[in-house]
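Inputs:
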Amino acid sequence: MYLLLMPEIIIALLGILVVILTLILPNKGQEAAKFVTTAGIIGVLVWIFSNFNREASLFNNIYLIDPYASFFKMLFLTASLLVILSSFKYVKKFGRRTSEFYAFLLFTILGMMIMVSAGDLLTLYIALELMTISFYILVAYVLNRETSQEAAIKYLILGALSSGILLFGISMIYALSGTTVISEIALCLREEPALISAVVLLLAGFGFKIALVPFHMWTPDIYEGAPINVTSFLAVASKAAGLAAMVRFFMISLDLFWFDWHLLLAILAAATMIIGNLIALVQTNIKRLLAYSSIAQAGYLAVGLVAANDYGLKGVLFYSMVYVFANLGAFAVATQIENDMESNEIEAFGQLGKRSPFLAAVMTVCLLSLAGIPPLAGFAGKFYLFSGAVEGGYVWLAFIGLLMSMISVYYYLKVVKVMYIGKAEKNAPLAIEFPARIALWICVLLTLLFGIYPVPLTVLTRNAVSLFLG
Amino acid sequence: MIGLTHYLILGTILFSIGLYGVLAKRNAVAVLMSIELILNAVNINFVAANRFVAGDGVIGQLFSIFVIVVAAAEVAVGLALIISIVRHKKSVNLDDYNILKW
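Outputs:
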């Protein structure tokens, strides 16, 4: 049984090891922490991939191991690996506290991994808090920078509030069903009017974690204030974790007949796509631009959950994986620019096409994938999501999604324009360190590969969503 | 006779007071206290539901103990952050934390 929990156990031990390492070797430990973390994550990733189809439920159904959980665990580990590789140089800023950074990063991964495997609302809540509390600390990591602190206190207050709202929803579900095991709730749930308010509170709580529109206000501020490698991890992994838990809970527990949460979520998704894309049009800071773009992407992902059919759910998984590579590619380029220029403004990208053709090409591919231009992976993902919506009878939602994708091309191309025909602030060629180069290659190659030949990823997603479709 | 409904109403009132506090208070510490009120409302709900709905089960009580523990961890991080901000800014008023907007 404990063999099945190996990935989680290894990640937890690794986190503790990294902290201890610096206590024993104060100076060498900082460097060693990087390599230990990277190696550990690669090992766990391989382990999970080779046991992808294993299914088990542990401790009376409160911990589930299935392809769905494995898929998201792979997503988190890949995302963290790319973040670590692309910010080898950036973390030097953290000085003596570098190794603790890796430890907290590992704890957030642990939280996410438990969250997607949780079969009980209590496990889900504890995992969620493990993830968010570690993220509060990571967001505040550059303590002497005021923006970082401000972002952290805002994140903490809003994050704690949203957890409170989510918990209140959970407590009402418990009052109506007498159980917190996700697979049992559907059987025991009494359908009373109070259930409506419980579902609304749960939607608000999860909506905050994945930044759906009325609950998106924290995203741009926190993305801008946090250190850039934390931002990139927050943008892809915590969003995917929230979404994964939300899909599992809503699909299995709240399969209701007389109250249609799909419509409510459809309205939120539509508002998210519209507002996220429209506000992104006027941004001048790359982190804020990517923040609003990530709000819009959360809207596209929610479309898949609204449809809740074969295409829609496969689309959610497919698109969140594709989103990892596209978004982290863009953030990796932004990290290199920040290393070089100490700036996050879009103008800092001026003449990147000349200074480093490789970086400019990666950025272009990733942004076009986020916009959903064929033949890149983002197109295939959006195709799944919107076909799911049409099949599920939400033609208007698919229409809004398509319209907003078209609008989004404008602000993505604005960055591309600056890179190729903008004014240069510096002309010296930009050097990229080796690990970051690997991360950039992985992002760009997989974005191209999954766009042209999506079969390997679709096979994984088909296995993963089979548990919802019977 | 006091039943589940009364406890749930008490919980909801406490939740609303907490929510009001989060939205209306300007002092960062007072906001953290309001969040504690919300979490206590949740605890009341869980314990009451455990007594009236779940019968012999203890999961509701367990849940409220976990909530208390996690809330303590959250407040520890929150207060540490506030202390480090106050060292820079000499203010706990949330309106003063306004570098990041739009």
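Remarks. Chain A has a mean pLDDT of 87. Residues 260-470 of chain A form one domain.
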